[in-house]
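Appendix B, Record 12. Input sequence as logged:
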Amino acid sequence: MVMRHYFIRQKQASRLTLFFAGWGMDEYPFMDCASSDSDLLVCYDYRSLDFDFTLLQGYREIRLIAWSMGVWAASVVLQDVELPFCERVALNGTMTPVDDRKGISEKVFEGTLLGLNEVTLEKFIRRMCLRKENLEAFLPKRPRRLVEELKEELQKIKEQVNFYAVPGFKWDKVVIGRDDLVFTAANQRNAWGGIEAEVIECDIPHYSEEMMKRLLCLSGI
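Logged structural output:
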């Protein structure tokens, strides 16, 4: 089994936007985020961190965007690989995703894992989006994955977080959502304190339709 991926745009551009999405995602929420001057590859499903690096061959510039659990996944997968990164941006996530001070608390993570079903997934999506406009934008294009699969992904993430050492990957920019109810702003600040990256705080929840499009469509923060 390898990490799943989907090219939203693949026109043999010289530049690639490499996007590591969050837990429970697939390509559908991001289908309208492609730029006209960059290919866009979405990576998701962290039941496995085995990555097909042949997907990145031929690109002269790679712009890495990672969101939520994707920040940790990208940090583990890419930390020992030489790639032509032009920018690396972490959005509402940390490299220590299950951590009482620098990620999601162990109690909350375990409660989400044990109690995950159709009802609690809907509640999570509402907490993730927080605002009516975000929820209305997200729901029509929500991921098409089964709850049983999402539960298995959470379990595998927990096991891999315990297995791998905290990655030493270098990020250029970190975006912290002050209204994030998943990775709280306080814990994100704890996680990124003292690093060399540019840290930007914005009044956004965990999922922001506007921020996602700004980052993935190359318009910038």
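The two ends are 35 Å apart (CA to CA).
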